[in-house]
Amino acid sequence: MKLITKAKKGEYPEYAEMYMKLLSDDGLILKHLKDNFLMIKDFIYSLPEEKLLHRYQENKWSIKEILVHIIDDERIFSYRALRFARNEKLNLIGFDQDSYAIYSGADKRDLDNIFEEYEAVRNSTIALFNGLPEEAFDRMGHGTGTANDATVRALAYHIAGHELHHFNFIKENYL
């Protein structure tokens, strides 16, 4: 798999620092994406079914909703990476993650079904980044206003860090 150097401050929005700090600077982000998926899958399957529907507070997401949120976010940020890699000049629109969670139907889905989608999206993400030309990783794209500008490289790290952020959050607040 391709080596992708870690994004530096200035290549991603300030809020994404919470994701970047969770990741090593070894360039093996695509390997980490693959390994982290397997680690999370093993961990989630070790939980009893009732835990997957647990909410640590009223109006907070269940673990199943968090999993589908991770999938949605990865799809969206991979799409952004594709657009930025292809030098798209138009700004992107944002998305309402809470609305996505409400309408996801995650709690009614079978865990096998969720992980089938998760794995398909993950494999697609890895294939996208692995196939990009080197010069694409330095391209800066424009999100919803300049506060969300990011390089393609930063989006790869965002996806991985976002996933780890939610995995850590589950372990700290749901168990």
Describe this structure in words.
This protein is mainly α and 175 residues long. It is 56% helix and 2% strand. Strands 1-2 form a two-stranded antiparallel ribbon. A hairpin with an 8-residue loop joins strand 1 and strand 2 (150-151). Helix 2 (29-45) runs antiparallel to helix 6 and helix 4 crosses helix 5. The N and C termini lie far apart (35 Å). The model has no long low-confidence stretch (mean pLDDT 95).
Q: What's the structural blueprint in terms of helices and strands?
A:
Blueprint: H1 17-20, H2 29-45, H3 49-52, H4 63-85, H5 97-103, H6 111-131, E1 140-141, E2 150-151, H7 152-173
Antiparallel strand pairs: 1-2
The separation of the N and C termini measures 35 Å
Count, helices? 7
The outline comes out as: globular
Q: How does the major sheet shape up?
A: 2 strands, antiparallel
Query: Assembly state here?
Result: single chain
Total strands: the figure is 2
Global mean pLDDT: 95
Order of helices and strands: HHHHHHEEH
SS-based structural class?
Answer: mainly alpha
Lateral strand order in the biggest sheet: 1-2
Give a nutshell description of this structure.
The chain is mostly helical and 175 residues long. It has helices spanning 17-20, 29-45, 49-52, 63-85, 97-103, 111-131, 152-173; strands at 140-141, 150-151.
Keywords for this entry:
about 180 residues, mainly alpha, two-stranded antiparallel ribbon, 7 helices, 2 strands, about 55% helix, globular
